[in-house]
Design a protein that fits this description.
By secondary structure, the chain is mainly α. It has one domain. The protein is built from 14 helices and 8 strands. The strands form 4 sheets. A two-stranded antiparallel ribbon has the order 1-2. Strands 3-6 form a two-stranded antiparallel sheet. Helix 2 runs antiparallel to helix 3 and helix 11 packs antiparallel against helix 13. The protein is globular, with a radius of gyration of 23 Å. The termini are far apart.
Length: about 425
Amino acid sequence: MDVVFLSRLQFATAVMFHFLFVPLTLGLSIMIAYMETKYVRTGDELYLRMTKFWGKLFLINFAVGVVTGITLEFQFGTNWSRYSAFVGDIFGSLLAIEATVAFFLESTLLGVWIFGWNKISKRAHAAVMWLVAAAGNLSAIWILMANGWMQHPVGYTIRNGRAELTDFAAVVFNKFAILQFFHMVGAGIVLSAFFVMGISAYHLLKKQHIDFFTRSFRIGLVMGLIFSIFVAAEGDVHGIHVTEVQPVKLAAMESHWETSRNAPLHLLAIPDEEKEENIVQIGSIPGLLSFLGYHDFNAEVKGLKDFPKDERPPVFITFVAFRTMVFLGSLFILLTIIGWFKRNRLLESPRYLKVMLWSIPLPYIAIQMGWVLAEVGRQPWIVYGLMKTKDAASPIAGSQVLTTLIGFFLVYGLLGAAGFYLMVQKAKKGPADA
């Protein structure tokens, strides 16, 4: 049994399951803070009911997200001890700041919000929710700084066989991490917006709590429209930076084998990594890959053949993940634009409401594909250009990893079933009466 493969599978299982909950925490906290602020400013009890209804769903999501996230950091010691020994001076400090500052701040403030109803003023209570949202996103900043450093290591020196921190500011202001943060938070808000719109659509189709869910839908619609466009625009900027620092990832994203100018973009391709070519290639648009990578239709794009075979990521997975993410992101823009024109006659648009109800899973899929692209596209490096994944695993038996992997599947399956069951039940029940 391959220890590296099993360790990668275990970490991927844990992080992808954890990331079913994190984006909703990031986005929904902002929307709840907005709803409670509207209640404070207008005195409209409907906004208070909205705050409490969506707040319950937020808390269930937050609780499961916390439990599933704790195990991730332990794996750096159990499964990836060589990696931890090599980069602990840099990576460890970032995770420590996230845990001891951002996470505990978020958890403490959330406790004040949960138990502070009627104990502190309305304005203070709403302010606490804004602080919860800020702390949650602050937590994301430190995590993405750590991941951004793995994608594009900066501010370090190699001393005594270890990567040691020399410039903390360079790590904090790493452009790769900053772009990742804005892309991730924007995607989290889009997911939350579709979550709110989808549940609202369910109740509007049943003609229940019409005013409540019409307003909720409109709030989600505005957030979804703004941030689906933002994510697409920011993704373009991020793509240009990936071209600069990880050119092999760009080539894999587009299954681009031969270095060329005016490089085409293939709408569909099936790569053959043994023959180093695409055995199926449909819908090539001349120059578009050059433009996406460099904003120049005549720019030269380096092909996969110009990179050593042992430094290329899995092409098919990277290609499909990128295509899926982009397709769904474009769909989100289309659906929210259509919704904008239907916002004043939602009850008269049952087909659109059904589409939005069944669209709830799509942002989850898009975000997961984004992480598959980021992580698989970085392979075979665990720290790009510095350390390969095969050299990072702990010297343990494959049977040990397999045993814990099975345990992860069982425990996470139960947690996921419980969490999603509770959320579905609360969502279907609707808001409490005034």
